[in-house]
Amino acid sequence: MILYCPRDKLAQIGKLGALELRRGFYVYVGSALGPGGVRARVAHHAQVSPRPHWHIDYLRPHMLLDRVGYSYGRVNREHRWACFIRALKGASVPLAGFGSSDCRCQAHLFYFATRPSLRCLADSVTFRV
Q1: How many domains does the chain have?
Q2: CA–CA separation, 37 vs 28, rounded Å?
């Protein structure tokens, strides 16, 4: 997911604590291998959840949805994508542990001052506006 934060603000992210959001773009990667699959997970994250469950649920009320990328398959690509996005020019980790409690990554949320170019993911991910 690519999210846009229109202004600086503070957001409480469950037990992780407070996150100082900066104006700009945030890229979140996750998997949807559970019940309902990609369709259910994307539909859930596209809305603001009245009862937050995942880290991204706490962030969504403060962000505008810019784009959603997804792929289908039985292989979890979340870690690989997180490593790829972290290595992009301009990427930073705004809150360690965000979305990565089941992975060895530092986080699955990345900040960019301007919309990142994710063209090289096009072969494995379908982006929707």
Answers
A1: 1
A2: 17
- Residue 25's φ and ψ, nearest 5 degrees, are -110, 145
Q: Write down the pTM of the prediction.
A: 0.85
Q: What is the 3-state secondary structure (H, E, C) of the chain?
A: CEEEECCCEEEEEHHHEEEEECCEEEEECCCCCCCCHHHHHHHHHHCCCCCCCCHHHHHHHHCEEEEEEECCCCCCCHHHHHHHHHCCCCCECCCCCCCCCCCCCCCCEEEECCCCCCHHHCCCCEEEC
Dump pLDDT digits (tens) for 30-81.
877 777 777 887 788 788 988 998 888 999 999 999 988 877 777 777 888 8
What distance in Å separates the CA atoms of residue 7 and residue 100, rounded to the nearest whole number? Answer: 25
Domain holding 40, by residue range, is 2-128
